[in-house]
Amino acid sequence: MLYRSLLRVAGVGFFPLGFFARLPYATSALSTLILLQATTDSYAFAGLASAAQSIAIAIGGPLVGALADRYGHRSVGVAAALANSAAWAALLAASHDTRESMVAAATLVGLTQPQVGPLVRVHWSRLMRSHDTLHLLPVALSYEASADEMSFVAGPALVGMLAAINPLAPAVVTMSLIAASTLPFALLYAHRTTQRLSSGEHGKPHLLLRPLAVMFLAMVVMGAVFGAVQTAVTVYADMIDRPGASGLLYAEFGIGSALAGVACAWLPQRFSLRARYVTFATALFLGMLILFIAAQLVSLPVAVALASFTVAPYMISLYALTERLAPAERATTAMTILCAGGPLGTAAGQAVSGGLAESHGVEGALLVALVVAAGALLLALWAFLTDRDRNIWIIDRVPAKNQAPREPVEHSQDRPLS
């Protein structure tokens, strides 16, 4: 019933096109890695270029978000899709040129990456407000988390199949997906309820820097967990002499997370956002503890299956809190800043866990996931205790059905809210 309500609000066509529109993000890094490794015959160089692309995504995302808040989602979404297609064409051309050209083109691909995930979450927020159905926003965010997870299952699987045909094929198909889905999605849906909002008579509204920094760091931690788990399943697959098993194991991680994300739609409204954040940070830590222990006592596939269910609920709480602490006119900027933490954390998690895996194998990589999850829990507890003393979050509860949304307000970084 809850998800049928989303269909009525957004329209049936929104969902399949929105899913395919986010696939280029899920295929981008691996497509670049395969293309440049095949061209240069160097995993080290391909990894360097892919890392440069990830860092560029983290830098470019907030810039795209700020432009979308200023000029509107439709115009910026279309421009980003066109620019990203051109950047992919440049990368394909540079694959026959110097290594410096390849790194520059890979960086350009990252800087112009269409920010479908963050923009569509802001789309949901404004869509729900315009339809007076704000009580459905947690359901929409649950769906989006599940869609993200499934895109990171389908995307790498698609790249793997295409790479078996030709190493150029993943990059070409990524370009095609941008033209066939990301661009039409921006044209058909981004303009409906995501047009630029007026900042009102008080001037440009401010972002709450301190709580936004907490959310950004929390997403960095989540990215580090992803990077460590990716490293662990890759090492495990090499140990059992089945390299293809790494993709299947990581897909298992994504599927479990997606299922948990779908289930979050049925959480009771009295379960406040702050309480969800602390609860799911605790669950994430316990999940990584189970992963670390069960991988040694039982098997890594079983451990991954158990731990996967603790991922999406934690991420959904971050998206929901970020949506609430940002004024409407700066919501896209805030959401893209949050999402920028993901690729940065993933790159750091892969680097650190890769070094530990060299000497300690799978357990070394999983130890990184456990340590950063403990950091996520400590960060959540600190934010909760600070909130009790200083009230740094905008809202405590998921809004009840038919509750009128708050108007955007001006506030300084430390001014008490609500």
TrEMBL record:
<keyword id="KW-1133">Transmembrane helix</keyword>
<feature type="transmembrane region" description="Helical">
    <location>
        <begin position="364"/>
        <end position="385"/>
    </location>
</feature>
<feature type="transmembrane region" description="Helical">
    <location>
        <begin position="212"/>
        <end position="236"/>
    </location>
</feature>
<feature type="transmembrane region" description="Helical">
    <location>
        <begin position="76"/>
        <end position="94"/>
    </location>
</feature>
<feature type="transmembrane region" description="Helical">
    <location>
        <begin position="12"/>
        <end position="36"/>
    </location>
</feature>
<feature type="transmembrane region" description="Helical">
    <location>
        <begin position="333"/>
        <end position="352"/>
    </location>
</feature>
<feature type="transmembrane region" description="Helical">
    <location>
        <begin position="42"/>
        <end position="64"/>
    </location>
</feature>
<feature type="transmembrane region" description="Helical">
    <location>
        <begin position="168"/>
        <end position="191"/>
    </location>
</feature>
<feature type="transmembrane region" description="Helical">
    <location>
        <begin position="275"/>
        <end position="294"/>
    </location>
</feature>
<feature type="transmembrane region" description="Helical">
    <location>
        <begin position="300"/>
        <end position="321"/>
    </location>
</feature>
<keyword id="KW-0812">Transmembrane</keyword>
<feature type="transmembrane region" description="Helical">
    <location>
        <begin position="248"/>
        <end position="268"/>
    </location>
</feature>
<dbReference type="Pfam" id="PF07690">
    <property type="entry name" value="MFS_1"/>
</dbReference>
<feature type="domain" description="Major facilitator superfamily (MFS) profile">
    <location>
        <begin position="211"/>
        <end position="418"/>
    </location>
</feature>
<dbReference type="InterPro" id="IPR011701">
    <property type="entry name" value="MFS"/>
</dbReference>
<keyword id="KW-0472">Membrane</keyword>
<dbReference type="InterPro" id="IPR036259">
    <property type="entry name" value="MFS_trans_sf"/>
</dbReference>
<protein>
    <submittedName>
        <fullName>MFS transporter</fullName>
    </submittedName>
</protein>
<dbReference type="InterPro" id="IPR020846">
    <property type="entry name" value="MFS_dom"/>
</dbReference>
